[in-house]
């Protein structure tokens, strides 16, 4: 039988099947007569067999080219989205269980281009295992009614606008004229039957321009092995979502370069203009293409950049107008406005405070924005696309939100800032201690806090106590996270702002003393002795007037973290800083006097401590000053005196300070190693002590890394190597 004859027989068999299916449509599934059911099954088998013969009769190269109606690509080279393409290919594979997928994102983000690219890759066999992953048909339908060109928004005729037109397109691509001319009542079932006999990829572009309910109802009932991809700005129910965000800078830069090169007149942008274009567009591909097109038309590059976020401009209208219209005067709009004030992303708790929405309204608003792809969700945090943020800021009075946000972060730092982390790490072994200690909460908010601090410092107001408070509460976070330049910067600025208030109250002197001490200690750790000395002097000048009459502890008025003044603590750490500076300047007697004063205060406070936690806290402080006195003795080469003080650190109850205990153990081991009179037994004991210290430091580094711990562990490793060489111990034992 010739190919033409075979096609004729197949056509007649399909017509006969159509008549039978039309007859069957007059019955329910349970009432179809037995003879009619038998005839239907036989005719379907016949059609399936003939379709197989027809495929074999076609030339090999023709048979492997899917039936398709793909439109041409609108780009020379596809840029970016490789991860999304790989994910789509994985989902569309024969083994993939899901069959209905949605590419979602704001207008212009590249949904259509991605769908078209994956379709062409299947058509060209440009996928992994093309023989296995081959589609028999690739069907493209688009409801797009407008496009954005360099000269503005242009109307375009949609390929489809109704479900019936989608039916027609499927029939045309599958060459099933019999179904196309069948009664509309049976077309849907006949299309499903036709799709059962081939592996087809159906793409529905610009889904929101269609009547969603009937189209989605049809799509969810399509049979295996059909795969469906829809593109839509809003996330659809029952659809496996593939969200798109802006291109990363490297890929956006590549797209910018490509677009500059393909214009009729070659365009050159400076690196600053490229970065500005990326920042303003947020990596949205269409916004980039539109901008370069405008420049190619002769528009000034800077004026193009300036006009990008004009709400009345064609780019904003095309990409966002529909979505923004859907949230006007709703909780979603309130949330969108609030998000513009955050430097980075926002947590749910902060959003609730800022919007003053109850849980239900807040959840509904977040859900709507997420479905419209206007916000990105990262676990329990939310942010805006850069372009969306730039746009939204144009119609938001940020000042009305800013002060409220600054107050929220002030309360946030009251709970999560200060010296809280260090204390709780050291108290974690106590029964009932909170295991969720530390600065982890600040880690996720630090960029927002920095943004507020920059704004507070740059605000017209001469004095804002919130900046002072922020500087004090962030100081230890910045120190223990190795952000020392920022600690110096913000504590210095907070100190300067505080001194604008004259005369200073005792509370303000107390805060200024802490800020100056923290700046000075950071300079000291950086080996900048001169700046350390200057700030130590400032710290002492703040608190000296408060030391007249009585003991330092007489000035205490509650916990620092609760808003009180722990003056005795500040007194000892300022003396400690002054002593360290004096030691570096060779003033050993002054240094010893200051260290001993601090030690005496902390011992008295230990004796007065009312509970176990407070005792441990004070014991830790006592250990610090014993250790400092020991190091002073080392500086003076009084090794016996140093050993006495280091052993004090190891005694109960001062051994609560793990860091100082490890330092004392290493120092005693170092002294033993240097002493030629040390017996081998004592050397071996010291060596094992160093090994244990090394293990503890390793564990500490696993929990959290910082410069000081790194310095200690490097010293520990060096000491281990020296002991191993002297004792003839193999290094692999450590």
């Amino acid at each position: 039988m010739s190919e033409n004859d075979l096609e004729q027989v197949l056509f007649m068999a399909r017509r006969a099947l159509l008549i039978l299916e039309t007859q069957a449509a007059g019955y329910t599934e349970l009432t179809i007569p037995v003879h009619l059911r038998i005839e239907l099954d036989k005719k379907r088998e016949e059609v399936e067999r003939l379709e197989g013969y027809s495929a074999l009769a076609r030339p090999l190269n023709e048979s492997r080219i899917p039936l398709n109606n793909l439109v041409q690509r609108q780009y020379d080279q596809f840029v970016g989205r490789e991860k999304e393409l790989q994910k789509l290919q994985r989902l569309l594979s024969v083994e993939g269980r899901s069959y209905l997928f949605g590419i979602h994102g704001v207008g212009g983000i590249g949904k259509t281009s991605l769908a078209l690219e994956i379709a062409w890759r299947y058509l060209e066999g440009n996928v992994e295992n093309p023989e296995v992953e081959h589609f028999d048909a690739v069907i493209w339908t688009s409801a797009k009614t407008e496009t954005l060109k360099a000269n503005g928004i242009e109307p375009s005729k949609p390929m489809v606008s109704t479900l019936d037109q989608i039916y027609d397109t499927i029939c045309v691509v599958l060459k099933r004229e019999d179904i196309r001319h069948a009664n509309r009542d049976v077309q849907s079932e006949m299309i499903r039957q036709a799709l059962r006999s081939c592996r087809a990829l159906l793409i529905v572009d610009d889904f929101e321009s269609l009547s969603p309910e009937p189209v989605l109802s049809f799509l969810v009932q399509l049979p295996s092995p059909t795969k469906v991809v829809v593109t839509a700005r809003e996330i659809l129910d029952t659809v496996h979502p593939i969200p798109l965000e802006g291109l990363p800078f490297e890929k956006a830069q590549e797209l910018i370069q490509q677009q500059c090169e393909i214009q009729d007149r070659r365009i050159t942008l400076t690196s600053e203009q490229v970065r500005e274009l990326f920042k303003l567009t947020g990596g949205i591909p269409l916004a980039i293409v539109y901008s370069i097109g405008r420049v190619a038309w002769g528009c000034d590059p800077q004026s193009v950049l300036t006009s990008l976020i004009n709400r009345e401009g064609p780019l904003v209208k095309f990409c966002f107008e529909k979505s923004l219209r859907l949230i006007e005067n709703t909780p979603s709009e309130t949330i969108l406005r609030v998000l513009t004030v955050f430097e980075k992303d926002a947590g749910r708790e902060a959003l609730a405070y800022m919007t003053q929405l109850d849980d239900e309204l807040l959840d509904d608003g977040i859900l709507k924005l997420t479905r419209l792809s206007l916000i990105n969700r990262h676990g329990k945090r939310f942010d805006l696309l850069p372009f969306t943020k730039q746009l939204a800021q144009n119609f938001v009075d940020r000042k009305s939100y800013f002060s409220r946000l600054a107050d929220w972060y002030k309360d946030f730092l009251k709970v999560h800032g200060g010296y809280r982390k260090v204390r709780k790490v050291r108290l974690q072994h106590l029964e009932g201690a909170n295991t969720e200690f530390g600065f982890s909460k600040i880690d996720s908010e630090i960029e927002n806090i920095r943004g507020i601090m920059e704004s507070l410092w740059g605000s017209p107001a001469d004095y804002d106590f919130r900046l002072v408070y922020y500087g004090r509460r962030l100081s230890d976070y910045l120190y223990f996270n190795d952000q020392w330049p920022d600690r110096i910067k913000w504590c210095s600025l907070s100190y300067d702002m505080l001194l604008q208030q004259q005369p200073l109250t005792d509370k303000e002197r107390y805060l200024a003393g802490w800020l100056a001490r923290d700046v000075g200690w950071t300079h000291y750790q950086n080996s900048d002795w001169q700046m350390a000395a200057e700030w130590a002097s400032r710290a002492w000048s703040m608190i000296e007037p408060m030391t007249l009459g009585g003991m330092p502890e007489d000035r205490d008025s509650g916990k620092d973290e609760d808003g009180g003044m722990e003056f005795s603590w500040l007194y000892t750490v300022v003396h400690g800083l002054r002593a360290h500076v004096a030691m570096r300047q060779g003033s050993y007697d002054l240094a010893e006097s200051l260290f001993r004063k601090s030690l005496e205060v902390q011992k008295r406070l230990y004796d007065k401590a009312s509970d176990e936690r407070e005792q441990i806290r004070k014991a830790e402080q006592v250990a610090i000053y014993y250790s400092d006195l020991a190091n002073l003795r080392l500086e003076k080469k009084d090794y016996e005196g140093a050993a006495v003080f280091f052993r004090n650190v190891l005694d109960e109850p001062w051994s609560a300070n793990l860091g100082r205990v490890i330092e004392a153990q290493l120092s005693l081991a170092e002294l033993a190693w240097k002493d030629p009179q040390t017996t081998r037994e004592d050397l071996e004991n010291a060596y094992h002590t160093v090994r244990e210290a090394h293990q503890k430091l390793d564990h500490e580094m696993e929990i959290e890394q910082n410069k000081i711990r790194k310095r200690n562990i490097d010293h520990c490793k060096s000491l281990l190597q020296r002991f191993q060489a002297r004792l003839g111990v193999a290094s692999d034992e450590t």
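The domain at 527-651 is CATH 1.25.40 (Serine Threonine Protein Phosphatase 5, Tetratricopeptide repeat). The chain has a mean pLDDT of 85.
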